[in-house]
Design a protein that fits this description.
Length: 327
């Protein structure tokens, strides 16, 4: 059976970019593929979080995945560090990855600029651990946002190299895109991101969201309500594309162009439509938070299943690279 694999870092609160760019596809793909979804805590160590903060974030991301519709009866949901084979395979792949390939990674440059006081080697080799995540499950489908394109390309090259050197072992992992591969942040400048403070949290209440939307930029040429707007250049209207029906979007666009509808009312409609998606997720998350033992059970069962699949791959890998005694 074809497998799908993806991971989310426990480095902050999930936002609607994570939901629209990745989680929506997790829920879709689990219907037809054998699915492995992972909270990648080892990746998060590149940002040196406090231990207690990391622990809490791991649980919150797992809760977010479940509340968004990841079904532990269909998919294997687990924490990366609970499956030590991730680190083992990462080392083997590290020895196959040219420095030049890693040097090209723009995320390394971005992260280095974001945390100049902590440019550690893990930030540099980060995409190799990600390659190991995918390869351990021999995944062929990887649902991620557009920001992961370069990492996926590196993963494909590395796994092709492994196959060339040691014999055909890993399939070629294909990226799976959602309808929102790059959700722009509230600042309208860059992609929505946990580290930029430009996000709408998945668990935020309608009031919290409205407060953020109130301050968000719209069409820069529309200074007063009486000015006619251009929805195509408005970041808020781009969000309507993800949450609002085609019919209501047409009404909004017409109202904006004719200056009948003000930005504040347009934002209120968006907040209400977002709430229709976020509300039920927030409620399911609250139920999950109230029963920590249940979450522990789900993650323990997930780790067992993931370890079994990972160990099967590692036995083959160890043999191919010459790390296993055959006597
Ligand atoms: P991260 O939080 O960086 O671990 O990202 C988790 C998943 O969400 C990855 O598949 C990302 O590509 C995706 N993602 C993060 N930010 C965005 C965004 N602004 N738009 C679309 N997808 C995103
Ligand atoms: N690097 C990814 C991100 O920041 C997270 C990730 C880690 C991942 N391992 C993965 C995504 C494996 C897909 C497959 O978003």
């Amino acid at each position: 059976m074809v497998r799908t694999m993806s991971g989310i870092q426990p480095t902050g609160n999930l936002h609607i970019g994570n939901y629209l760019g990745a989680l929506v596809n997790f829920v879709e793909l689990q219907q037809q593929y054998e699915s492995f979804f992972c909270v990648v805590d080892l990746h998060a160590l590149t940002q040196r979080p406090e231990a207690a903060v990391l622990q809490r974030a791991v649980r919150e991301v797992a809760i977010g995945m479940l509340a968004s519709g990841v079904d532990p009866d269909k998919a294997t949901l687990f924490v990366q560090s609970h499956v030590p084979q991730h680190s083992e395979l990462a080392w083997i792949l590290t020895c196959l990855t040219p420095l030049g390939d890693l040097n090209r990674m723009t995320q390394f440059k971005d992260k280095s600029a974001q945390q100049p006081e902590n440019i550690n080697a893990g930030l540099f080799t980060y995409p190799i651990l990600q390659t190991a995540d995918i390869a351990l499950y021999r995944a062929e489908r990887v649902p991620v946002g557009e920001d992961q394109d370069q990492h996926l390309e590196l993963a494909r090259e590395t796994l092709r190299r492994f196959n060339f050197v040691y014999g055909e072992t890993f399939p070629d992992p294909q990226t799976v895109r959602s309808k929102a591969p790059r959700v722009i942040g509230l600042d309208g400048q860059a992609k929505m991101s946990k580290s930029k403070g430009n996000e709408i949290g998945l668990f935020e209440t309608a009031d919290e969201t409205m407060l953020k939307l109130r301050g968000a930029k719209t069409d820069p040429a529309r200074l007063r309500k009486s000015d006619k707007g251009t929805p195509e250049v408005c970041n808020i209207f781009s969000y309507h594309g993800y949450f609002t029906s085609a019919e209501q979007r047409e009404e909004i666009a017409a109202g904006c162009r004719s200056a009948q509808l003000g930005c504040f009312d347009c934002k209120k409609m968006l907040a209400a439509n977002m709430e229709a998606v976020k509300g039920p997720i927030r409620e399911r998350a609250a139920v999950l938070r109230s029963d920590p033992a249940r979450l522990d059970d789900i993650l323990a069962a997930g780790a067992d299943k993931a370890r079994a699949a990972a160990e099967a791959t590692m036995q083959l890998v160890r043999e191919r690279v010459g790390l296993r005694r055959k006597d």
